[in-house]
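Hi L.,

You mentioned the student needs an example of a multi-chain input paired with its predicted structure. This one should do, with 450 residues in total across all chains.
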Amino acid sequence: MKYDVIVVGGRIGGSISSLFASRNDVDVLMIEKRQEIGSPVQCAEGTTFSTFETLEMKPSKKYICSEIRGAQVHAPDGRTMKVEEGMTDGNILNNNTISEGYVLDRRVFDKYLAIESAKVGTDVMVKTTVKDLIRKEGKVCGVVAKHLGETMEIKADVVIAADGVESNLAYKSGINSIKNPDDICSCAQYELVGLDIDPNLLEFYFGRTVAPGGYSWIFPKGEGIANVGVGVRNSTETAYYYLKKFVSKFDATPVELNIGGVPLSGPMDKTYNDGFLVVGDAAGQVDPITGGGIHITASCARIAGEVAAEAIKEENVSSMSLKRYDELWRDEFEDNLKTSFKFRKAFDKLSDSDMNALAEFFENNDLEKISKLTTLKFLGKHPNLLKLLKDLL
Amino acid sequence: MRYVVESCGYCGACVAVCSNKLLELTENEIIIREGCKNCGRCEKVCPLGALISEDAR
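Structure written out for the whole complex:
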């Protein structure tokens, strides 16, 4: 068997890469190790409106559970700060509003994207695990796959690894992709039914007793239904321990348990090789503060599919040619991801009392009218925060 | 490293951090290849506690 492009992984990164490669008239095979695309869900399912601009798709009620118009942040001492519709986060999240977007049904959305890709010509193999890369004179030229006990070699000019945080393919291609455990957010989430929540409001809870090294969240998915989850880092207890603790305060019933590991280390130094590209979680294309990655992956995967197709048409799939993918996605996201990583490192140093002090400050001051003098007075009373600010500047 | 398959959520966080790349996530199981030094990196990130250092047994 021989294809122009093999995409490994059938979630968002894989389906979008294959969709845009197929649309550019090359033969594409997408391989998914699970027997069902979109399952299990490993995500809080929130994304920005811009995801659909990237995909040039009209959002559909088939996979959109709720539209988000605001967010509420809970400090460790219970103080809250509401982020209103239209407020932006500066450059941290590429000028997307932090409080507007959609909560998706990933099970339906991922499958929908795979179907769209198949409609334009992508071949799809499910329940097929890629065990290794085929290499010739150092260049990646296919994969060794296993389906129902049968091992097969499938050749390709370009292999796109979109196989998630658990990817081993980047490493096999010669790219160092080993993650530091302190940079992995360990997550557990229930889909809860019977909640008394605002269906258009995201909620975030911070504090060492709630989610050390991370946060807990409520992402509404409709009337009384929400993804309620916890992400922790460098914790002695598991994410599941904190999830059980967090949900014990709600009189609601879980109908689904989701588990995930989110890479918060920022992008990898290199995301291409001869005949090879990496996208999505496998490439660290995730915002290190929020852990959100759908809109970033959507853009990067589109670029990967288009660059791979272009390189094949030019009959040059060398590292030098495929480097265009790396340059294009970095132009769009790298500065923001690096800034976000710097902020994440600073936030790691915040104690609960620092977070409470910040919450009190924002509670007592209008965010858009805070004067320099007021800020300086506040920082004078909180030397730890002043030091962190100096580190950031 | 002891792997409790009944406790596994198949998220692959452990695979991402294995410094010797000895772990592999198949559809519904983690495969641990020979050579594990029981370093505990995978245990640290497992959301459900499915990986347990031999020392902790």
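You could point out the following to them. The first strand of chain A starts at residue 2 and ends at 8. Residues 349-392 of chain A form one domain.

Best wishes,
N.
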